[in-house]
Give the backbone structure.
Amino acid sequence: MEKTKIGWIGLGNMGIPMVSQLIKAAHYVTVYNRSKDKADFVKNAGAFTAPTPKELLNNSDIIFVMVSDDEAINQIFKGEEGLFAGDIAGKIIVNMSTVSPGISKDVAAACKKNEAFYLDAPVSGSVKQAETGTLVIMVGGDEIVFEKIKPVLEKLGKLVMLIGGNGAGNYAKLAINALLALYAQGLAETIVFANQNGVETEGLLELINNAAIGNLFTTIKGDAILQNNFKPAFALKHIVKDLGLAKAEGLSSPLANAAFGSFQNAEAELGEEDIIAIIKTLK
Ligand code: NAP
């Protein structure tokens, strides 16, 4: 697997640290990103660049896609210079973006028709886990294809799990992100309530993080709140997207509905900031 030629599409907050893991693992990597300036960082690390997804195919056996949403997926696959404009026969395409199960199934069918293989493989974890290759990766697709690329996915994640057929990875991811939204909203509400009653954030977080309810999320996001650092690791606009996708798949529970409303209301002002910036709307 070491000599596999890898194509990587999408150099956002997650794409850059993820592809950096594969470059470090000595794969031959070619990258494409819509905004060209972002490629400089990985170019300096030893990757090649392609001007379009279509041209990236010339140098890649396995193509990873890590972009924002369904619209971006449509551009990458079906755009004039997209993957479907080239010869994809025999290629394995791994879509790690958080997108709808529907678009995954649609793209998977088109890949199959063109003798290519498609896996949905969204990730749980954020920039820190991407930087250390400790993401949790949930995969939908064919088991034989999964086994073939598992060694590469293991460079990116500490847990790589096949969930079911195409779209199953996306369903698992939407379920997990519903919980993420509740954690973020809940942590923010808890801190604001405590502050209103004279309990300082730092002490409260120490209590939470030493109690059974503390976890990696409360630690990382608690630190961000303390440092007033809302630079996006996971942009708030992405949780609005994910809750919208989950709702379209039937998620309509009391907490999820309330969290969706809360994040939707915050999006215009705070969409480009981190998810935990939701605390600003409560203060
Ligand atoms: P990001 O920083 O917003 O980057 C988005 C990437 O998608 C960029 O490369 C962007 O290109 C590209 N893109 C957006 N619209 C496009 C279009 N219409 N055509 C072509 N390319 C387009 O996002 P991210 O945080 O890396 O997240 C990527 C995916 O992983 C999302 O689905 C997100 O929900 C998911 N995810 C994120 C995290 C996290 O903590 N950040 C964790 C787990 C999963 P430009 O550079 O040209 O804008």
